[in-house]
Input
Amino acid sequence: MTSKPASLSILLVEDQLSVARNISEYMEEKGHVFDFTGQGQHGLDLALENYYDLIILDLNLPVMDGLEVCQQIRAKSARHIPILMLTARDSIEDKVSGFTAGADDYLTKPFSLQELEVRCLALSRRHLLQTNDILTLGCLSVDRKRQQATRDGKVLNLHAMGFRILTELAEAYPQVVSRSVLSQKIWGDEPTESDAMRSHIYQLRNVLDKPFDYPILKTVHGIGFTLDINNEK
Output
């Protein structure tokens, strides 16, 4: 029995509307979720504001080209977002420039949409395999493989939803994760009541902070949540 490929959240930065439409229609039929823009600066803003499993980035963009967008993402993003570069150029020099800027893979136009999806899935899997199972942030340790977290060496008795929220915050650290992004990562496009997030955060605080001398889960009013590891007392 063949398992169904994972659904990816993808940002497509491509200024040729016909190419963008073909890619998005094909990939959405395969179950992947897309955001799209034809402008480099807008693509950079989206990449830094939202969580994506992968970015498909065209090299030849107006004003801010793909190389600059890639370099800015690498310089400003708190996490490594896999980037697949698209280009009509196929010279070795162009490919070297793309990889030097921080691209993870390269695909030359014209290309097969089936190959594009296969490369995206492979790139996403490779990134996950290269990610350390254990995140250590000061007093906090999050073991993604064992689904277990500890603070000051003490195992935290977290429910599944609390562990997921804590993992998202730890992966984004030190950035603030907005309520909308956190909801998207946990519930996807399924609507949820506003009180649900409040309840889960409350339960997480009871386990993560209440038994200890000081809190590390912080609310940034009007924005979202972050971990305050640097302010350990």
